[in-house]
Amino acid sequence: MAAKGKVIITCAVTGAIHTPTMSPHLPITPAEIAEAAIEAAEAGAAIVHLHARDPADGRPVQTPEAFAPFLSVIKQASDCVINITTGGAPTMTIAERVRPAAHFKPEIASLNMGSMNFGLFGMLKRFPHLKHQWERDYLSNKDILFRNTYGDIEHILTTCAEAGTRFEFECYDTAHLYNLRHFLDIGLVKPPLFIQTVFGIMGGIGSHPDDVMHMKRTADRLFGSDYRWSVLGAGRAQMQVAAMAAAMGGNVRVGLEDSLWIGPGRLAESNAQQVRKVRQIIEGLGLEVATPAEAREILSLKGGDKVGF
After folding, report:
1. Residue 20: C-alpha distances to residues 24, 52, 60, 206 (Å)
2. How many domains does the chain have?
3. CA-angle at 181, arms to 175 and 187, nearest 5°
4. Which of 55, 107, 112, 186 has the most CB atoms at less than 10 Å from its CB?
5. pLDDT at residue number 230
6. Distance separating alpha carbons of residues 218 and 221, to the nearest angstrom
7. Going by C-beta distance under 8 Å and a sequence separation of 6 or more, which residues neighbour residue 45?
8. Smallest Cα–Cα separation from 50: which of 72, 23, 20, 25?
9. Which sign, positive or negative, has the C-alpha torsion 9, 123, 237, 173?
10. What global pTM score does this model have?
11. 214 CB contacts (<8 Å, ≥6 apart)?
C-alpha cells in the first residue's frame, strides 16, 4: 500500500502513557523532546508525532505554550513532517486536547476514532517505586474512559478544517474503523485516509497476528484504495507488529510513546534507536523508507511551509 514500496516511519517520541520513573531515556523537557525528534528524523522517521510534558515533573500537558519551544527547534533543524496530538492524555477534555493543533495548524494531527476504556494499571507491577505522586494516581486509575464521541471527533475535524490539517486516524478496535467510515460518508474527511491501527493497549484490540489481520481486512473492505495503512504495537509487540505490517505493504510507527524497550529486558536508549531497528527490518524485506517529501506526497499533505509555527 505504501506508494512504490516506500514505507513511512512515524516516531512518537514521548506520548502520555509512560512516566518519568519508567525510563531515564524518556524525553521530558522541550530540549529533550526536540533533540529526540531531530535524531529520529535523521535515523529515518519521515513523521514525528509529538506530545508535551511539564519539565518539572514530566506530567502530560496540552497547552500551546508547552509545544511552542520544541516545534520551532524541530522545524528549523529538520524537514520531517510534524504531527501534533489531539489525543493528549486520556484524562483531558476535548477542548484541552485540540488546542495545540488548532493553534499551530500542523500538516497532520492525530485523531482518536472512538471512546474506550484505557487501562494503564498493569504497569504498576513492573514499576512499583514511582518518583512522583501524580504517576501513581494516574497509573492506578481503573476508571479512565478515553472519551471520543461523535461530537468530539466532529469538533476536532471542523476546528482544524480551515487550516488544511489532515489526520492520522488512530483506531484501537474495529468499531473505530466503522466510525471513520461514517465521517467519510458524510464528507467530513477525504481520502487518502492515513489510518493508524493500534494494537496492545488495554481497552483496545490485542496484538496477536490474527488481530492485525482482522483490522486490515476490515479496513480494506471499508476503504479499499482510499486509505494508507500504518500500525503501532504497544510494549513488547512493537517490532513484531511493525514487521508483520511492513511485509504486508503497510507503514509503521515506533517510539518511546509506544514502547520503552529495544529488546527483552533492555530499555531503548533513544527514539532513534527504535527507528534504526525498524528501518533494518523494512530494508531487510527489500523495501525502502520514505523521505519526508515522499510521505507528504503519499498522504497529500499541505507542506511544511503552510503551518503556524
Report:
1. 7, 13, 11, 26
2. 1
3. 145
4. 112
5. 98
6. 5
7. 9, 10, 11, 80, 271, 275
8. 72
9. negative
10. 0.97
11. 174, 205
User: What are residue 251's DSSP bridge partners?
Assistant: 230
d(Cα 92, Cα 152) in Å, to the nearest integer?
12
Torsion of CA 230, 190, 153, 271, to 10 degrees: 30
Which run of H or of E encompasses 193? strand 193-199
pLDDT of residue 5: 73
8 Å CB contact between 244 and 238? no
Which residue range forms the structural domain that includes residue 221? 3-306
To the nearest whole number, what is the mean pLDDT of the chain?
96
3-state secondary structure of 250: coil
Strand 6-7 relative to strand 288-289, pairing: parallel
pLDDT at 79: 98
Q: What pLDDT was estimated at residue 3? A: 54
Q: What is the pLDDT of residues 271-281, one digit of tens each?
A: 999 999 999 99
Specify the CATH number for the domain of residue 98.
3.20.20.70
* 189-222 tens-digit pLDDT: 999 999 999 999 999 999 999 999 999 999 999 9
The residues of the chain scoring below 50 in pLDDT are 1-2
Cα 158 from Cα 155, distance rounded (Å): 5
